[in-house]
Every structure is written in structure tokens, then in C-alpha cells.
UniProtKB/TrEMBL annotation:
Reaction catalyzed: N(1)-(5-phospho-beta-D-ribosyl)glycinamide + (6R)-10-formyltetrahydrofolate = N(2)-formyl-N(1)-(5-phospho-beta-D-ribosyl)glycinamide + (6S)-5,6,7,8-tetrahydrofolate + H(+)
Protein name: Phosphoribosylglycinamide formyltransferase
Gene: purN
Domain Formyl transferase N-terminal positions: 3-189
Binding site for (6R)-10-formyltetrahydrofolate: R66, N108
PANTHER family cross-referenced by the UniProt entry: PHOSPHORIBOSYLGLYCINAMIDE FORMYLTRANSFERASE
């Protein structure tokens, strides 16, 4: 059984999607074992408490000055036997030490179809604002492994979402979450825990399993 840690900074809607999926039996081979928040006031901590998941606050600001946030995070994860790290609205950039320690074991959900509207500075509503400004007809979400390049790791899953003529950044954000993020992330986590994601360089392959095609 793969122990999963979810890293959060805010409300934790993607964390809730994972909690709900686990309750439905949709995360096979894994269990949500730890929630780590970069903010003591994050509502995601309350979601974790309600679900009976251990929650720890690791404030980025307190460690950043000493330059040892990665080491503190790695020590915490290793002490809990964590095998998979999931970034779910985690607004801190992981350093190379953390990426190396959990190479191809850190999944992130990004609210666009990478390589569109991604990289440094693209997060939250900014992504959807840029999508609308560009006039695209289709956007979506991407689950990918984390590498040293922001949003540049191997892609695992993507889901397209249509852009409507009357969309605002807020309405588009909500629809991308409902139609893509909350479905893709639990699916990718389950695939990892089942050992069905093969990584070769910057490419991934989903291996056939069970009765699935």
C-alpha cells in the first residue's frame, strides 16, 4: 500500500476530490496518509481533520530564510514512509533537493493543457485569464510529474474543457476543476499506486491493468 502525502496551501478542493475518491474505493493500492500545508490558516487542514488524515503545517516563510525548507519537508515525508507526493494547490516551488529525493514520485495538477499557459508565474486565476485573453476555444487540465523545470515534468494525463463565449476567469476555473481536475487527479494517483505509470525520460506510458482496455 503506497502512503500518499498531499501538499496544500489553501482551500483544498483537489484534496477533497482525493478524499472523496478514496471513500468511493477509486484509489487502488494507495492511502491518504498525510496532508502538509504551507499555511496555518489553510482550510485544507480542516478537510484533512474531518477525514481523519494527519495534518502538519510547515510554514514556508519560517524555513525559507534558513534555506532548509526542502530538508525539513523531506525529513517529514520520510518519517511517515511516504511513497507518493501530490501537489494540490501548493503555492511553493519545490527545490532541486526535494525533486531529486522524490524523482517521478511527485504529481502536480495544472489548470491548462500543458504546454499552453504554464511555467513560472502561471497559477490560479492567472492561467484562466491568459487563456481567455488568448481567445482559445479549448483549455483543460494536466497531471504531470514534477521536475526542476516548472510544469515541465513528464505528462501523465490531460483532459480538455471547452471555453464558452460568456466565460469569466472565475467561471472557467470552476468548470475546469469540475470537469477535469477533480477527475484527473484521483485517476493519476490510483494509476501510480497500482504501478501502472512507466516513465522513460520525459515520456510516460499508462500500462494496461485489470479488465481495463
Amino acid at each position: 500500500m503506497v502512503k500518499i502525502a498531499v501538499l496544500v496551501s489553501g482551500g483544498g478542493t483537489n484534496l477533497q476530490a482525493l478524499i472523496d475518491a478514496e471513500r468511493r474505493g477509486e484509489i487502488r493500492g494507495g492511502e491518504l496518509a498525510l496532508v502538509v500545508s504551507s499555511s496555518a490558516g489553510a482550510y485544507a487542514l480542516e478537510r484533512a481533520a474531518q477525514a481523519g488524515i494527519e495534518a502538519v503545517t510547515l510554514p514556508r516563510r519560517e524555513y525559507a530564510a534558513r534555506g532548509d525548507y526542502d530538508r525539513a519537508l523531506i525529513a517529514l515525508l520520510q518519517s511517515r514512509g511516504i511513497g507518493l507526493v501530490v501537489l494540490a494547490g501548493f503555492l511553493c516551488v519545490l527545490g532541486p533537493e526535494m525533486v531529486a529525493a522524490y524523482r517521478n514520485r511527485i504529481l502536480n495538477i495544472h489548470p491548462s493543457l500543458i504546454p499552453a499557459f504554464c511555467g513560472d508565474g502561471f497559477y490560479g486565476l492567472r492561467v484562466h485569464e491568459r487563456a481567455l485573453a488568448a481567445g482559445v476555444k479549448v483549455t483543460g487540465a494536466t497531471v504531470h510529474f514534477v521536475s526542476e523545470i516548472t510544469d515541465g515534468g513528464p505528462i501523465v494525463l490531460q483532459q480538455a474543457v471547452a471555453v464558452r463565449e460568456d466565460d469569466t476567469a472565475e467561471s472557467l476555473q470552476q468548470r475546469v476543476m469540475r470537469e477535469a481536475e477533480w477527475k484527473l487527479l484521483p485517476r493519476a494517483v490510483s494509476l501510480f499506486c497500482e504501478g501502472r505509470i512507466a516513465v522513460d525520460g520525459n515520456r510516460t506510458t499508462i500500462l494496461q491493468g485489470g479488465n481495463e482496455p
